[in-house]
Design goal:
306 residues, three-stranded mixed β-sheet, L-arginine/glycine Amidinotransferase, Chain A, single chain, 15 strands, alpha/beta
Length: 306
C-alpha cells in the first residue's frame, strides 16, 4: 500500500469561525476579532494555489451556507479514502460537525472517484463514541498501523472496528499537553511519513505507552524527529507527507512535507534538515485558520487514494 498520494480534497469555507462546540476539548483554539471568514478564505485559496504549484492535484469543493458548518475546512475528520476503492465515514464529537457530511461532498467523491466500498462508522454517535478520521488516527498505510491517542474524540471501540474493517493494527496511548490536559487529536502531536515520524514523545506520560509507540515506529524503520511541547503548540506535529504528480515545479513522485508556516518557524535547523533529506517543504500561511479553528495544514487535507 502507498503511504503518500498526489491527490487531496479540500473544502472551501463559507462560514468559517470559532466553534464553541469543539472548544470544550480543543486547547488549540483561540478566538480572534475581525472578519475571520474573509481572512480564512484568502488563506485557503493561497494554500490551494501553493499545493498545485508543487504538483498536488487539489479537488476543491465549495461549502454551502446551510447548514452552517464553521469547521468544514477540516474535512479529514469526517471521511477518509483508501486504496481498493474504500471510503470511511466517521462519528464526530460535536453535533454541528456532523453536519459537515454534506451530500454535495459525498456526491463529488462518488461521481469522480472509484469508490466501491463504504464503511459507515457514524452509528457510534448514538452511543456517544467517536473516531474523528485522520485527526483521531495517524495512519501508517504501508505498515497497516493506526496510531491513536485515546481521548473523548477517539474511542478504542470504534478504532477496533475501523482496524478490523480495513486490516490495520491499532497502537494506542494516552497523551497530554504541558499542563496535563488530554490532547484531543493524535495528528496534533505526531505525523508519520514514508521515512520519518514526527512526535511529541514527552506528551506520552505512561512509560508503557511510550515504549509501545517508540517500538512500533522503530520496527517500521521510521526516523524519529522529536518535537517539544512548545513546538507541538505551534502545530509542528500537524504535518502530512504528499508527493508531486509532476505537473508543477517539482519532479513526479518527489516527496512533499506539508506543514504550516507557523509550524515551520517552530522547527530547529536540525529538525528541518531531517525532514528535507528527501522531501521539499510546502508551508502555507494559515494563521487565522489555525488560531480560530485549532487545526493546521494537515487537518485541511483529505487524502484521495481511490
Amino acid at each position: 500500500m502507498r503511504q503518500t498520494t498526489d491527490k487531496v480534497l479540500m473544502v472551501r469555507p463559507c462560514s468559517f469561525g470559532f466553534n464553541e462546540e469543539t472548544a470544550v476539548n480543543n486547547a488549540f483554539q483561540t478566538r480572534t476579532g475581525g472578519d475571520v471568514q474573509a481572512k480564512a478564505l484568502a488563506e485557503f485559496d493561497a494554500y490551494v494555489a501553493l499545493l498545485r504549484s508543487y504538483g498536488v492535484a487539489v479537488e476543491v469543493v465549495e461549502d454551502t451556507p446551510s447548514p452552517r458548518t464553521p469547521d468544514s475546512v477540516f474535512p479529514n475528520n469526517w471521511f477518509s479514502t483508501h486504496e481498493g476503492g474504500t471510503m470511511v465515514l466517521y462519528p464526530m464529537f460535536a453535533e454541528n460537525r456532523r453536519k459537515e457530511r454534506k451530500q454535495t461532498v459525498i456526491d463529488t467523491l462518488l461521481q469522480k472517484y472509484d469508490i466501491n466500498n463504504l464503511v459507515d462508522l457514524t452509528p457510534w454517535e448514538e452511543k456517544g463514541l467517536f473516531l474523528e478520521g485522520t485527526g483521531s488516527m495517524v495512519l501508517d498505510r504501508a505498515a497497516r498501523i493506526a496510531y491513536a491517542c485515546l481521548s473523548p474524540r477517539t474511542s478504542a471501540e470504534v478504532l477496533d472496528e475501523f482496524c478490523k474493517a480495513l486490516d490495520f493494527r491499532p497502537v494506542t496511548f494516552h497523551a497530554s499537553d504541558a499542563s496535563g490536559r488530554p490532547i484531543y487529536h493524535t495528528n496534533v502531536m505526531m505525523s508519520v511519513g514514508s521515512r520519518n515520524a514526527v512526535a511529541c514523545i514527552d506528551s506520552v506520560r505512561d512509560p508503557k505507552d511510550r515504549k509501545n509507540l517508540e517500538e512500533a515506529l522503530e520496527q517500521c524503520k521510521k526516523q524519529l524527529v522529536p518535537i517539544s511541547f512548545e513546538q507541538m503548540n505551534g502545530f509542528a506535529g500537524n504535518m502530512l507527507e504528499l508527493c508531486s504528480d509532476g505537473t508543477g515545479s517539482i519532479s513526479k513522485g518527489k516527496a512533499l512535507q506539508v506543514l504550516s508556516l507557523t509550524a515551520l518557524h517552530c522547527l530547529t535547523k536540525e529538525q528541518r534538515s531531517m525532514l528535507t533529506t528527501e522531501a521539499e517543504i510546502v508551508a502555507p500561511d494559515i494563521d487565522i485558520i489555525e488560531t480560530n479553528g485549532g487545526g493546521s495544514a494537515r487537518c485541511m487535507l483529505a487524502e484521495l487514494f481511490c
